[in-house]
Specification:
With about 425 residues, the protein is mainly beta. It is built from four helices and 30 strands. A hairpin with a 6-residue loop joins strand 11 (about 215-220) and strand 12 (about 225-230). The protein is globular, with a radius of gyration of 22 Å.
Length: about 425
Amino acid sequence: MMLDHSLSPRPSRRDLIAAGLALGSLPALAQFRVEITGVGLTQLPIAIAPLRGEEAAPQKISRIVLADLERSGRFVGIDASGATLDEASRPDLSLWRERKADALSVGSITALADGRFDTRFRLWDVVRGEDLSGQSYAVTRADLRLAAHRISDYIYEKLTGERGVFSTRIAYITKVGSRYSLWVADADGENAQSALSSPEPIISPAWSPSGTQLAYVSFESRKPVVYVHDIASGRRRLIANFRGSNSAPAWSPDGRTLAVTLSRDGGSQLYTISANGGEATRLMQSAGIDTEPTYASDGRIYFVSDRGGSPQIYRVAASGGAAERVTFQGNYNISPSVSPDGQTLAYITRSGGAFKLQVMDLKSHTSTSITDTSADERPSFAPNGKLIVYATRNQGKEMLMTTTLDGKIKARLAGQGGDIREPAWGPFQK
């Protein structure tokens, strides 16, 4: 199986929101490091044996797979060092049961004459003694990490029944010195590729539903302007450059429309505009400042408004109409992100001067704080809804983190060089 993995390639968003509502190093590349903290209540013990031939390979596939699975919060690794098994082996599963493993992955990696690498693996259910099959990937050196993520996706789905997100991508912004960069990286933060670099701020990256384009705001014309950027070609198009501020793009579920915040008619208000640009349509009339729109899977738009006297999260039909307030606890709630199933809202609340990631059950409207940091920013759901990526600061360092929805398993991602901001988790790869 051939894998195709081609990538061409602020003031802070929260500062802008605060201003507007009050109104409102380069990342380290290709280094393997994922720090995981926390203990989940139910984690499946899994052994990922080193692939035969892995020591001579450019990437340690088994380590990437194990880190992926542990970061999900659903698995705990069992020591498999010293195992000499491959996909053709018939492992003695009784030995792995003695090691308390419920599942075992074995495989091999072989350099091919054309320069590619043949990566094979097989998954075993140790408890039931079942062969759960496997896959093979013949990939270039550049795609070995993607092959590892594909293996992780396969194992995750086989053992949980849910789709894995390890081969998806994230986008984020860095500021190093006076230079801003928009990066597209693997879901573990590694393998970052530059999509745009500018001496002027870049903010608010948002993935198209197809995962082929990013919308964002650039200040390169000395005012906030919305662009859509094709990831593969690097080409981009101007979407919104109206009088005043053009900001906070969000894609509709069908990818045809963007919701944006414009101030062309006075205060910051929500509009919709074709993903190809053109005239904008005002969504509703508000005496307050409306910003940070985000679409839910049911088509409704969640957004932030100070119409009630303080920044709170509301929602409205995609066609406009009466807005419904969603958050009531605290006097400062911003940066809404809705889970793909529409059941959970992640957002940032300010409490005692700290900015904390919250998760709300939208049925019960019960909110829970799931971090112990105080400078959390811009949550974004993984496409399977099981993880959230966010930016934060800890011990003086900016970093990207992922967390399970209960906050019990957190992982620090690569790319911690410089000032890291505004992660956005992309959709499943087609």
